[in-house]
Specification:
The complex is a heterodimer of chains A (380) and B (224). Chain A is mainly α and 380 residues long. Chain A has one domain. Helices cover 81% and strands 0% of the residues of chain A. Chain A is built from 17 helices and no strands. Chain A is globular. The termini of chain A are far apart. Chain B is an all-alpha fold. Chain B has a single domain, classed as Phosphate transport system protein phou homolog 2, domain 2 (Methane Monooxygenase Hydroxylase, Chain G, domain 1). Chain B has 7 helices and 2 strands, in the order αααααααββ. A two-stranded antiparallel sheet of chain B has the order 1-2. The chains are: A mainly alpha (380), B mainly alpha (224). Chains A and B meet through helix 10, helix 11 and helix 12 of A and helix 1, helix 2, helix 3 and helix 4 of B.
């Protein structure tokens, strides 16, 4: 059927099966990139590794680096995958990586907050959009405020993650036979040989490998997200239509989870919610659980990345990301009183922001750039 | 809800198209019932119940479609923006036709009935023409053949002018008010319905800026 300007509906589209094959190829490329990060760090000497990662011995510095790094690449999938690669190289320990993972969780919320600023000129729309965006921020900040001290004091989250990874692949510090690691070994070796043939060794070789790995990871993730979004756009649209007006709760959370796993990006999912809440099609309370589902769904990328490393600690760190988000939901969504905290805070902040628009911009700059930057500067 | 994600099915835009077609069928249903009460003596109370139920369905569909169009733009981006804007105008026209059917039915509240009137055959013929145009409209939206669309627009425009002529005729008629006024009002509604159907079909072929206009934007077709 074709209603209204049929010409606008006919676009040149890559056939679905071809796009699916392309996505699989890109996932493979992404895994190669993660493996290259690991190899690159290993190429560097122990002294260099020590110098590079000493700052993150302070958990708050690690948290702020996680925020800044994620704000920089606008993707927690990318930053957590890099962290997984670093843990696999043993340059970074699980304990150091946990605050960074939590920081990445906060940093990723900047994208939909920036999207909400696009509605600045229309007060009512902006108020709804900004509240829907910052409810994600508040949830992640509150979760970190509660769970980071608990983790530092008891090692609860990493303990759960270690338990799961131990049950799945073996004890901490060990390597496990990952078929994916074996499959990416050859291309990583080829690229390393290319750099070596240019005369690079030790630190220069490590830097070249890490830089190439970073470019590959970011490029592959961007392309995976873009292609998956196209592949599943109709499904996402149908599912959101089914969710609208049918209330919130755990079903909406699972919808957020499924959509995010499919598009490999929580930013995509949460950014789709912003125009919907801005238009009043979706309420803040209905958007909130979708956001939480997206928070959990985005952890799939780091889990995938850990498969390329064959390192139990990498898998543990990836599972920390999942466990942290699930525990956050148990703490801040399942408990009725706590559920209201992020919602009320976001509504209050939106009221302030709509009366003084410059505060909204100041909020983004201070929370996502100034505080983390100052934190890194002073705590390293 | 979640299974919807894994189900193979029509694209969301195809679902929107199907819902628009249902809205047109509902609008026709309301039009047929309302005119049956005025022209054929069908029980007005019974017709009102069904017309109001149908109108409620049309209104719900309009709201649902607006939501779905916002979701469409949020998910798919701006590539279909012309289509989306066209559809928002189109569904409003269909909703107005539903309201106009109710307005026609309201004439029975004032005791208007043309059953047995000397000019009834003319009214019945025009009603049949308009009713058939609803089906044609739905068909043209699904398959907007340019020649058929042009032919439809020509006929709808002729009908509109015919209705307008009738309104003028009754305005200057020497017949008493209880004879001329209901007829003028009925033709006025029919003229609006013909214009709205023409507008609906126009969305299938015209750029969004020319919808509701003819001659590349020079002539307004709905609010005259």
């Amino acid at each position: 059927m074709t209603i209204a300007n049929p010409k606008s509906r006919t676009r040149l589209e890559m056939p679905g099966p071809v796009r699916s094959v392309l996505v699989f190829a890109l996932i493979y490329l992404f895994l190669v990139g993660v493996s290259m990060l690991e190899a690159g760090i290993k190429d560097m000497g122990a002294d260099t590794q020590e110098q590079l990662f000493a700052p993150v011995n302070n958990p708050l510095a690690g948290l702020f680096i996680g925020i800044l790094g994620t704000v920089l690449v606008q993707s927690s999938s990318a930053s957590t995958s890099v962290i997984v690669g670093l843990v696999a190289s043993q340059a970074l320990g699980v304990e150091q990586a946990v605050p960074m993972i939590m920081g990445a969780n906060i940093g990723t919320t900047v994208t939909n907050t920036l999207v909400s600023l696009g509605h600045l000129r229309a007060s009512a729309e902006f108020k709804r959009a900004f509240a829907a965006a910052t409810v994600h921020d508040f949830f992640n900040v509150f979760a970190v405020v509660v769970l980071l001290p608990v983790e530092l004091a008891t090692g609860l989250i990493s303990g759960i993650a270690k338990g799961i990874s131990g049950a799945l692949v073996g004890s901490s510090g060990s390597e496990w036979e990952s078929p994916i690691k074996a499959s990416v070994k050859a291309p990583v070796g080829w690229i390393e040989s290319i750099w070596e043939s240019l005369g690079l060794t030790n630190n220069p070789l490590g830097i070249a490998m890490v830089a190439t790995g970073l470019v590959i990871v970011l490029l592959a993730l961007t392309l995976i997200t873009g292609n998956m979004r196209r592949l599943v756009a109709d499904r996402v649209e149908r599912t959101l239509n089914a969710v609208l007006g049918k209330g919130a709760g755990f079903v909406a959370m699972i919808v957020g989870l499924v959509i995010t796993i499919a598009v490999q990006s929580s930013s995509i999912t949460t950014s789709i919610l912003i125009p919907l809440t801005a238009a009043g099609v979706l309420t803040l309370r209905n958007a909130y659980p979708v956001t939480l589902g997206a928070n959990v769904g985005t952890t799939i990328t780091a889990l995938l990345a850990s498969l390329a490393t064959g390192s139990t600690d990498s898998l543990t760190v990836a599972l920390v990301h999942t466990t942290f988000n699930v525990m956050g939901i148990l703490l801040l969504y399942v408990v009725p009183f706590a559920r209201e905290l992020p919602i009320k805070s976001a509504e209050r902040l939106a009221e302030v922001a709509v009366s003084r628009r410059q505060w909204a911009i100041a909020y983004v700059v201070v929370v996502f750039i100034a505080i983390p930057a100052l934190g890194v500067a002073f705590l390293r | 809800m979640i299974l919807e994600f894994f189900r193979r099915g029509d694209s969301a835009m195809d679902q929107i198209d199907a819902r628009v077609a249902t809205m047109i069928n509902d609008a026709r249903h309301s039009f047929d019932l309302a005119t049956a009460a005025v022209l054929s003596g069908a029980d007005a109370a019974q017709m009102r119940e069904e017309v109001e139920k149908t109108d409620h369905r049309i209104n719900e569909a309009e709201q649902q479609l607006r939501q779905e169009l916002v979701v469409h733009v949020a998910v798919q981006g701006s590539s279909d923006i012309g289509t989306v804007l066209g559809l928002t105008l189109l569904i409003k026209k269909i909703e107005r036709i539903g309201d106009q059917a109710k307005n026609i039915l309201d004439l029975t509240d004032e005791g208007v009935s043309l059953v047995g009137a000397p000019d009834l055959d003319g009214f019945l013929a025009d009603r049949t023409t308009i009713s058939d145009m609803f089906t044609e409209t739905a068909s043209l939206l699904t398959d907007p053949d340019e020649e058929k669309v042009a032919d439809f627009r020509r006929r709808a425009d002729d009908l509109r002018h015919h209705c307008e002529g009738k309104v003028r005729e009754f305005m200057h008629s020497d017949e008493p008010g209880h004879y001329a006024v209901p007829r003028a009002i009925l033709y006025r509604y029919w003229k609006r319905i013909a214009a709205n159907l023409m507008g609906v079909v126009t969305t299938a072929v015209e750029p969004v800026q020319y919808i509701d206009y003819t001659d590349h934007g020079a002539t307004d077709i709905t609010d005259d």
